[in-house]
Amino acid sequence: MSATITEKILARASGNKSVKPGENIWTNADILLTHDVCGPGTIEIFKDKFGSNTRVWNEDKVVIIPDHYIFTADKKAHRNVDILRTFAKEQSLPHYYDVGTPAYKGVCHLALPQEGHVRPGEVIFGTDSHTCTHGALGAFATGIGNTDAAFVMGTGKLLLKVPETIRFQLNGSKPDYITGKDIILRIIGDIGVDGATYCAMEFQGEAIASLDIEERMTICNMAIEAGAKNGIIEPDQKTLDYVKARTNKPFTPVYSDKNAPVAKHYDYDVSTFVPCVAEPHLPSNYAPAKDRSKVKLDRAYIGSCTGGKLADFIMAAKILKGRKVKIDTFLVPATAEVAEGLLTNTIENKSLLEIFAEAGCKDIAPPSCAACLGGPEDTFGRTHGNEVVISTTNRNFINRMGSKHASIYLASPLTAAASAITGYITDPRDFM
Amino acid sequence: MTKNDNDIITGKAYVLGDNIDTDIIIPAQYLTLIPGIPEEYKKLGSYALSGLPDNFPRFVEEGRNESEFNVIIAGKNFGCGSSREHAPVCLGAAGVRAVVAESYARIFFRNAVATGELYPLESTQCLCEQFKTGENVQINIQSGQITNLSSGQIFDLKSLGAVAPVIKSGGLFAYAKNEKMI
Ligand code: SF4
Questions:
Q1: Which of A150, A158, A200, A153 is nearest to A44 (CA)?
Q2: How far, in Å, are A7, A208, A216 from residue A162 at the CA level?
Q3: DSSP code at position A174
Q4: CA dist A121 → A234, A295, A306, A324, A358 (Å)
Q5: pTM of the model
Q6: For an interface test with A, which of B37, B43, B82 has the most A Cβ atoms less than 10 Å from its Cβ?
Q7: pLDDT, position B2
Q8: CA nearest to A155 within chain B
Q9: H or E element, residue A109
Q10: Dihedrals φ, ψ of A297, to 5°?
Q11: What is the complex's ipTM, to 2 decimals?
């Protein structure tokens, strides 16, 4: 019987020959990911329910990456990192990336694949809705709450409903002014913020194949913004190269059968796409950037798991090189590896860092989630008033970046950089 | 005996619209609070729905931890956004016994069931126009109905199916224990 990649991964992880959408199955986890916002609550429930001396089901499979509230004076935020640190020590967890040490990485959804914890064909549960990012490497990855995570921590498994698959066939050759962000914002604009609720969003086609891994992550990252359980892209040579450069662990990739039945199928021709934004206050409020050129901005923000990867900064630098920004421009690399890359990557002999400094951007912040989700009052880039922001992040809900009076426009790093130069929402083709 | 033992929920409604996201339910600056610590659990209640725009009446009065409203009526995609369990927890801590929405975001629904904090009930039609904030309501879990006690109108709810006993026992772990799964 033919099956999708999601169904095949879940069949294997549940010890079944095959599974059908709608079936409830006990699924074995390959990785449980948590961070400083949901880790302490998860640990609390784990100890309460399994007993404070209980061991986690498998030390090698629990990955703890503090990233949300790191560079803040907030006392509770520090207390929460202390809880993670103590737990990692008690349990002798080898994969704890502690704050204030060389092991610190930054945003969990980029650090997890960069550290080799994401492998094709595996199952990843994370206490964060953007865990769906990891489908970009052909894994089944989904976000769960603290109680479910505590259950996984103790037992290594979780009862899951097999999702139906919606397939997005992205044909055509991708123009260089179109990014992963433009593709996913267009799709969410079409299907709505609940257009894929409970479903797997599978992306394939020529345009997807042409994307590098980080751009594929941008797409899968925002599957949750359409309500999906997971986003997923079949592995190819680029995937295998990325993963093998980062881990020696063996893995077995899984692929969709060509004729596997899906709940819905969408065809797109990416060569017709235009640079876009999502207007406040929903990621589905799609608008072409050039139709919003009257929107005056107060700041630009480039960062987060979806928009703070090296690929995102390279795109922004190409636009900003030799130009000046008109508005406050905040740059937050997602991880230490990205921060390092800003130094070592050059365009015409200038490092990305130099390009941003000469363009008049604010000093680069250390890697973390920073203002992507607002955070404590003293968070870098957080809004406090009625700022109008163009941001490469993934959510523009009321309150998301701190202030309930701020307006957030989501956009690609190309569009954010072009808009930073003019102070208005700007189609990046004006500078390409 | 858990707080969900009783099949009849009576109280006051608070009416919202579509796409009520987790940043509205519990803004991110309060996520440093750990739900399992009793004082912090209470504090989470005081911040429930504090991300709503200013034109909404306050859900929890200044200086209090619990709301006068214990039933939320909403439209589509309630709880979209983050996986933060703080969302159903803060509502439960504020005294909310049930949300009646047209549909839910997946993770919110799952977290509501796993924590046993409240009943995530689905209406068979949009009820946002049929109730006004402050009106008295009664929900019968067993018969699957919600009554607007002010207007006398009765509306059907969808069946909770397999998750009903989980919520009734007080959440995933309580249920797993009852069923001798752990
Ligand atoms: S960068 Fe933003 S979306 Fe990504 S994990 Fe951090 S807070 Fe969540």
A1: A150
A2: 7, 24, 23
A3: P
A4: 9, 44, 22, 45, 44
A5: 0.97
A6: B82
A7: 63
A8: B182
A9: helix A108-114
A10: -110, 155
A11: 0.95
The model's confidence at residue B178, banded by pLDDT at 50, 70 and 90, is confident
- CA-closest residue to ligand 1 atom 6: A369
CB atoms within 10 A of CB A128: 28
- Record: contact A148-B172, CB cut-off 8 A: yes
CA A140 vs CA A29, A160, A208, A308: distances in Å: 10, 12, 18, 23
Give chain A's residues under pLDDT 50: none
Amino acid at B147: T
Res B4: pLDDT: 73
Residue B1: pLDDT band (50, 70, 90) is very low
If you search the block for the tokens 């929900």, which residue do you land on? B139
For strand A62-64 and strand A350-351, is the pairing parallel, antiparallel, or unpaired?
unpaired
Using a CB cutoff of 8 Å and minimum separation of 24, what contacts does B41-44 make?
A: B41/B89, B41/B93, B42/B93, B44/B86, B44/B89, B44/B90, B44/B93
Structure tokens at A384: 């406090």
Mean pLDDT over the full length of chain A: 97
- Output the furthest CA–CA distance in chain A (Å, rounded): 61
Which tokens hold the place of A253?
């990739």
Give how far Cα A167 sits from Cα of A6, A199, A382, Å: 11, 10, 36
Q: What's the pLDDT at B179?
A: 81
Q: Is the Cα torsion angle B135, B140, B144, B149 positive or negative in sign?
A: negative
Residues of B within 8 A of A44 (CB-CB) are 34-37
- List A265's β-bridge partners, or say none: A167
Q: How far is B40 from chain A (nearest CA, A)?
A: 11
The residue with tokens 């109108």 is B153
Whether A221 is in the pocket of ligand 1, judged by its Cβ within 6 Å, is no
CA distance B60 to A5: 46
CA distance B45 to A277: 35
The DSSP bridge partners found for residue A124 are A31, A141
Is B111 in contact with A76 (Cβ distance < 8 A)? no
Q: What is the rounded distance in angstroms from the CA atom of residue A25 to the CA atom of residue A118?
A: 22
d(CA B87, CA B24): 9
Contact state of B32 with A129 under an 8 Å Cβ cutoff? no
Would you tell me the crossing angle of helices A237-244 and A213-221 to the nearest 10 degrees? 100
* Per-residue confidence (pLDDT) for residue B133, from 0 to 100: 98
